[in-house]
Design brief:
Layout (H helix, E strand, L loop, with lengths): L10 H5 L21 H4 L9 H14 L11 E6 L3 H12 L4 E5 L5 H6 L1 H17 L2 H6 L11 H25 L3 E4 L1 E6 L2 E5 L6 E10 L3 E3 L12 E3 H4 L8 E5 L3 H15 L5 E6 L10 H12 L4 E5 L1 E7 L7 E7 L5 E7 L1 E4 L3 E3 L25 E3 L5 E7 L10 H15 L13 E3 L4 E6 L2 H11 L3 E7 L4 H5 L6 E7 L5 E8 L2 H14 L3 H4 L11 H9 L17
Length: 566
Amino acid sequence: MQSTAAVSLSASAIAGGGARSEATRRPGGLRVCGLRGEALACPSLRISPVPARLAVARAAAATNGAVAGSGGFDYDLVIIGAGVGGHGAALHAVEEGLKTAIIEGDVVGGTCVNRGCVPSKALLAVSGRMRELHDEHHMKSLGLQVSSAGYDRQAVADHANNLASKIRSNLTNSMKALGVDILTGVGTIVGKQKVRYGKAGLPDKEITARNIIIATGSTPFVPKGIEIDGKTVFTSDHALKLESVPDWIAIVGSGYIGLEFSDVYTALGSELNIGQVTFVEALDQLMPGFDPEIAKLAQRVLINPRKIDYHTGVFASKITPAKDGKPVLIELIDAKTKEHKETLEVDAALIATGRAPFTKGLGLENINVVTQRGFVPVDERMRVMDADGNVVPNLYCIGDANGKLMLAHAASAQGISVVEQISGKDHILNHLSIPAACFTHPEISMVGLTEPQAREQADKEGFEVDVVKTSFKANTKALAENEGDGIAKLIYRRDTGEILGVHILGLHAADLIHEASNAIALGTRVQDIKFAVHAHPTLSEVLDELFKAAKVNSGVSHSVNEPVAA
């Protein structure tokens, strides 16, 4: 990564931070995101039958929240930003009977749908198939013969663009169907519970809201000294258009974005015998945000066998786009001494140094709120804090704009949590239960703490950490697919059985992680989850074996229900 300022995916951010949040110690009287068994026993925690919840949503949709009434305000809730976080909050708000509007100055779907996780998955789907078809040894081991495999670059780019358009349309239609008012323009907070919005050349409109959620997301972070031309030096926003497959591309930053694009470029470039990738990483090791053991194995599987080299411990102090027949020039300096090390000459450079919050122009100065490196300060309930450290009433911020965990599904979860609060049900989201995934081939996924973070916490709090691992090479389904490369790793407390973290590298790791993340969210301990039954033969048995391998101290009781004899 290039710079620590405003970079989204630091080691602590990816794994949820090095210390257990205050939310993990909340008393049972709060309605929380299942952090402990006693929290689940709380009388205020109710799970409504699905038909009843749908009936409320449908009734509210007919009059956009007339169930609750707006009490003199234009709306019960106004959301600034219609990305994944704003969308999730809006749908849940209508379900809770709140009259809701969402303001969007660009296009519905935000970064994730239009310039991020959605179109990138389309490209990765293609790269995965190309990689498999070009793996002659893999094909022969399955008894398959493939004479040749090629691709149409424009058709691949169209697939990514069409997918984004389809999901964007789905999101828009889902809000319209439930009666959410979609207001077009740039939203600005002009005072307590007041928002102004409008487009250039048109008169602004002002509305009032009982509650306001800021959900404005983020933009690619470009460090100083890097000149973007959108053609030969570009961010992920440009790369997703797939206007070319460079012969040799440097990727600055080896986090999620950089790894996924290295997968795309090396797979698509292999057909033309191009696709050389060079990583430039500021820290001393690649993939610094991942669990070190997983990162080491990922380098052996995802980096070393491919046309990828790397420079670690260096900054790209200056990058000049290609012009007048000259290549892209990248000046590297030592990250510690700042001395010049060398100059790279490549065909293109992708800047994947994280993301910066998009919070300018929100009018925060009108309510005495000062951003921190661009991020809106919030407490554990996503309530915005002013410059004096006080909660700003009826104002919340979710998603990338608050910097707690810069993932689309985290933004949605935060939005739903906020709606629960303004509906009268106190709710705290446990960010350590939110999973993350990197959609390389094979995939990487994680939830909770890394092993170093867990051991650091154990040293401070005085408990024992244990680690168990299982291999995909022992899984029948993985072997049937001839995809045995991979491991799953469980980090837990031996004295209580609490799951602290789970990390997976292997086939469909992004899908497998949710059993672990749900266990953390619900407070399920390893001594309980080992009794869960998994279909055979499936990849889920990788986690089944993982939980069964964990040993807790003798005398530790079950945290949920004791198994009942047949």
